[in-house]
Structure formats: structure tokens, C-alpha cells
Design brief:
homodimer; 199 residues; alpha/beta; Helicase, Ruva Protein, domain 3; Dna Topoisomerase Vi A Subunit, Chain: A, domain 2; 2 domains; 5-stranded mixed sheet; two-stranded antiparallel ribbon; 8 helices; binds zinc ion; DNA recombination (chains A, B); metal-binding (chains A, B); TOPRIM_dom (chains A, B); DNA binding (chains A, B)
Chain lengths: 199, 199
Amino acid sequence: MAEGSDDIQALIALMSRLPGLGPRSARRVVLHLIRKRAGQMAQLAQLLDSVAQHSRECMTCGNITDRDTCAICADPDRATGEICVVEDVADLWALERGHAFKGRYHVLGGTLSALDEIGPEDLGIPNLVDRIQRERATEVILALNATVDGQTTAHYIADALDSTGVTVTGLAQGVPIGGELDYLDDGTISAALRARRRL
Amino acid sequence: MAEGSDDIQALIALMSRLPGLGPRSARRVVLHLIRKRAGQMAQLAQLLDSVAQHSRECMTCGNITDRDTCAICADPDRATGEICVVEDVADLWALERGHAFKGRYHVLGGTLSALDEIGPEDLGIPNLVDRIQRERATEVILALNATVDGQTTAHYIADALDSTGVTVTGLAQGVPIGGELDYLDDGTISAALRARRRL
Ligand SMILES: [Zn+2]
Ligand SMILES: [Zn+2]
């Protein structure tokens, strides 16, 4: 038992499986927390517990929230008729940090993928079409990653929305080929949004 | 409020201050945990709470443990008369992973530093000298980092132990100049320990 106690070893093992961390960084984080335990560790435990208990998906858009309806869907100022479709909550957060978009979102939770057998139903694309019609949206911005799967999904959604008459746009070229939104700086993502083009 | 809820934002802020993490990696970790919340997040909260409550320093060697005396100090097979002095618990863990040392440890918790006004008393060096005499240790291995402060501290301790008659050794050259133990691979650290030299 090299690392102090069974609980410490279990904590390191659990942390080393988090994205971006490995065994070495997990050990450093855990040692850091043990040294600061009076403050940070108890606070971290309490926040993790609270977030675990209260986080859920917004029933309307799929954003993560601690209520039935997220703050963006609940804000009447954001009823602009524009709905921005993203793959992931991380992309929604990235767009919000850019402060360029004033409408609402729709989180798919992934992309179509023949390989992983993810079809339109798995991503709730029929529900998205219903929502667009129910809310009489004027514009749908497909802010999907510039990857093959992201662009395949964008074309599929554009086709599915064809009969609704809504304007469908995509982010401007400015998102690098193969680029993932969450890795772009906030200025690039805002510029690409402002220069969005009709698909 | 871009990131879901006040608690989520606080959790991201706290995580982004951990060593090796920044805002982007903290956001990815928190999103990952929220997606897995049924399992990993509650488990992580519980382990953090348990480790925060039960972790303390071994009264004998300064290792982190959940008892008064750590498993290494409590193990009679490790009463070899050899005491390995390290700067930090991370270094003790690194040596244990190498499986080359069968004695006991002494964790200084830092190095002498004129700049940071850290003197021998702050590192408990008088207590170390007492312990060496009380336990009638036969060899003290100074496994300090190959940095200026680490080597200054090693020479200071070697001088302080001069009158006790104990054999004082250091790790073999093999630890690169300026290298920090916790960044070495386990094989290098074991080889350097086996080839340790008398100071
Ligand atoms: Zn929402
Ligand atoms: Zn101990």
C-alpha cells in the first residue's frame, strides 16, 4: 500500500480516470488536497455532492441545469426565434463565453455515427423538428464541430428541417477543418458565429 | 451564468486551481462527472470526504496515513536500520513504487531555503537527528531532489549527523541534474537507489 491508505489509493485511481488526468497528475492533485484539507477538500466534496444531487438536463434544450428549465430557456429576452444546435454542453458553454449569441440552444448530445450505431432517434432529431415548429423558430444555427460526423449530422438536420420553412445556417468558415469548438479561443468562435452563412 | 448553476461554476473554479488543471480541463472534468453522476461523482465526493476526515501525518516519519503510525513504520519487517530521507510524500510514494527500498522513511516536507526563510527547525531536522539516535539507525539515505536547495539540505543534514556515527549515503548519480524524483520513471529511481554512494 504505497499511497497512505485504501481510501487515498481509491481516490487516486478514480481521479486518474478523469479526462486529461493520469496517475501522476492524480497523485499530485490528491496530495495537494490532503495538504489543504481543512479548506479545499471538504469544499470540493460538498460541491461534488451538491452538483451530483441537483444537476439534470433542461427539459427543453438539454443544457445542464439545477432546475427543470435552464436559465437560458427561462429568460424571456432570449426568445429571439433563433435556436443554436450544438453537439455537447461544452460547446454551449463555449458559445456563451463568446457572448455573441442571444437566442436559445438545442443540445444533441452527440453526432450521427454509422460506426457507433447512433441514429437520428438517439439524438432526438425528431423532437428538435417538433420544437422548431412548436416555437415557430425563425432561424436554426447548426453550430456542430467541423468534423466528418459533425458535418454529416448538420446536413441530415438541414434536410429534416427543409419542409418547415425555417432558415438554416451554419457557422462561417473560420472554424478550422477538423476543429472542435471547445478548443477554439472565444474570439474565433464569436467571429465565426457573427459571419454565419446560410446552408 | 454560462455554466449551468452556481454550484457548477464554483466546482469548476475550485477544480481549475488544482495543480495541473486549468479552466478548460476543469470544465471537461466537471462535465464528465455530471454525465457519470450516478456512479463516479457520488463516489468521488464520498472518498474526498473520507480522505479529508481521516488523513494525517504519521507521528514517526511524516508519511500520510489514516492512523497515528503509517503502515511502513508499523511493519516490523521494515526495521532494517535504514532511514531514507525525502523532501515530500510524493517522493516517498515514488520510491515505494520502485520496490527497491525495504527500510523506513523520514519526510522533511521541503528543503532549506534562505529565500523562503525555511531553516532547519522548520524542517524538523533536530527531530530527525534525535530519531536516528533513538532508533540506533545504521544508515541514512538522503534521497533529496538533485536541485540546489535539495543538495544544500542534504549537505546540512550530513553535517548534522556527523557526530552520530551513522553512515550517510545519497542516491547515485543517475538522477539527472535538476531532476525531481517524482518525474523520474520507476526503473531509474530504483537503479539510483541500488547504486547509492556514501557522502
Ligand atoms: Zn434549456
Ligand atoms: Zn511512518
